[in-house]
Amino acid sequence: MQLEHGMDLALRSGMKFLIPILLLSLLGGAQDRTLYRVDRSSVRFISEAPLERITASTDKTTGVLDLDQRTFAVQVP
User: pTM, whole model, 2 decimals?
Assistant: First the structure.
């Protein structure tokens, strides 16, 4: 589906900008915290609209969890 590909491209370009900022904010004050790295996870979403249904999924996401601050960052390739 052409729309799914365009949406996927938009998500990837937006995430490439957002993820480094999130990771820097998480890791900036990490001296006293324990961070957990997530090497395998999956992301799936569905967007229902009157004219179309958009679905996307990947099993190649990675991320960082900070349980003390209750925050996380996920990178979608």
Answer: 0.44
